[in-house]
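Re: [help] complex structure
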Amino acid sequence: MEQRTLGRDLKVSALGLGCMGFSHAYGAPTDRTEAIRLIQQAADMGYTFFDTAEVYGTADAPHHNEELVGTALKSCRDQVVIATKFGIRFDMANLAVNKPMIPDSRPQVIRASVEASLKRLGTDHIDLYYQHRADPNVPVEEVAGVMADLIREGKITHWGLSEANEDTIRRAHAICPVTAIQNRCSMMARWYESLFPALEELNIGFVAFSPLANGFLSAKHGKDARFETGTDYRSVMPQFTPEGVERNRELLELLHRLAEEKEATPAQISLAWMLCKKPYIVPIPGTRKLERMRENAAAADISLTASEVQALDNELNNMEMSQVFGGTKIVK
Ligand SMILES: NC(=O)c1ccc[n+]([C@@H]2O[C@H](COP(=O)([O-])OP(=O)(O)OC[C@H]3O[C@@H](n4cnc5c(N)ncnc54)[C@H](OP(=O)(O)O)[C@@H]3O)[C@@H](O)[C@H]2O)c1
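Output below.
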């Protein structure tokens, strides 16, 4: 797969693999042996960038995902980039399927997190360590200071911020250079495109999470789609409701039309659109199916010219769409 560079020097495959769904948010976790095999198969087919977080898991196994990723990538650890995240926990007493997040980036909490993540991942360093969400009680400068210490100690090599705004990025970067942000980005969630000038000025990469709008942009889910109510976040996402699907009809038609023109699939068009927009965007679609990993990886081979991307943007700007899931509530 094509390689891209995040920040100054972090080389990754043009698409990374979002590993969250093996353990969290998309129904019951995948069978452990199967998940490990799939992650290894992704590495074999050219994915070199794997995304996890300390909180991807279930009530019974709250850190399930890091352990899976570490086990799966043990034999090729030196050839891959592992990204994980610190700084939130879920409010497990809450009954919602998508439990509210409680931010906590106190330095002592980060210190404990990094040690535990290293252990679960079975590695002596994390390649990219993101603050999962800003902590209103801890200035980002203090977090950046801890990151600088962890880099000096060799426990992490690069760091980043998730769902960060421009002010936070600039303040963080001034203390310890930020390699990448990881923010929501898809044809239905374009609000962070306003960060492009700042990212270019500071040479910071953009890792795009939920690049398929949680699978909606694959155009595989119709009005009759049903998801597990207790474990699958899609059961409460506005884009998947029958009304949402109806309001997104024009978008789905556009994806089907372009897919036909480019001899591609709607998912590939959605990914190629952002890959062709900026060379520093790296989408990390999540899938638990081998064929879809291949399909998504092949999006890197689809080229859209700058004017095709612009024309697509114009269509997206002027089209009716439903709301899209914007993230789990944060406890202030
Ligand atoms: N920083 C953050 O706060 C944050 C938040 C959310 C996610 N993330 C990261 O971003 C990654 C991706 O985000 P996401 O999983 O929320 O959303 P996504 O990648 O937009 O969508 C994932 C969904 O799309 C389906 N899918 C993937 N490829 C497909 C294809 N080619 N055709 C049809 N369906 C396809 C998957 O189903 P199957 O598994 O059944 O294929 C899954 O249900 C996560 O794994 C996680 O690592 C980070």
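Residues 6 and 235 are 34 Å apart (CA to CA).
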